[in-house]
Structures are given as C-alpha cells and as structure tokens.
Design brief:
The protein has about 90 residues and is mostly helical. It has six helices and no strands. The protein is globular and about 65 Å long. It starts with a helix and ends in an 8-residue tail after the last helix.
Length: about 90
C-alpha cells in the first residue's frame, strides 16, 4: 500500500511540474516588451542588441501577438518587420 501511495504522489508531482511552465509561457505572451526598441520604432534607427534580445525572447509569442487586436498593430507594422529583419528573426507565418 505504501508503494502505491508513493507512486501516486510522484505522478501528481511530475504532472504538476509539467503544467507550471505551460502557464508561465502563456502569461509571458500577455505583454510586448520593447525595451531598447523605441529609437528603432520611432526614428528608424538600427535596433540595439537589447532590442534584438527582447525580440528573440518573445519570438514564441509573435502569433499570439498578431491574433491580439491590441498588439497586432505593433507586430505587423513596417517598423516591426524591419526590426525583425535586422535582428535576423524570421517574420512569423501564423
């Protein structure tokens, strides 16, 4: 009986540990982080290394951003496309 209880507890712990990262990824896609990208967005300047790093980190969220009417205009703008191209990030095909 004790072995069965231990197996059940282990299963629950493993299951919960897989669910936690999934939720944190979804939460990460609720805001766009454009730190370091403002000069590139507003003035067409070359994106900074910080900007490229932020864009690369958010790459898994691009399709969520495109589908969100609040973020869509920022991700699909010509400035955003230019930043992604400069940073070597392919534009998402959602």
């Amino acid at each position: 009986m004790k072995f069965t209880t231990l197996v059940c507890i282990t299963f629950i712990v493993v299951l919960v540990s897989f669910l936690v990262p999934i939720n944190s990824v979804n939460q990460a896609c609720t805001k766009i982080e454009i730190t370091g990208c403002i000069p590139a967005i507003l003035y067409g300047d070359k994106p900074s290394a910080q900007c490229c790093g932020k864009m690369k980190a958010q790459q898994p969220c691009f399709c969520d951003f495109i589908k969100n009417p609040v973020f869509n205009k920022y991700v699909t703008s010509p400035q955003a496309r230019a930043i992604l191209k400069f940073c070597g990030i392919p534009y998402p095909t959602c």
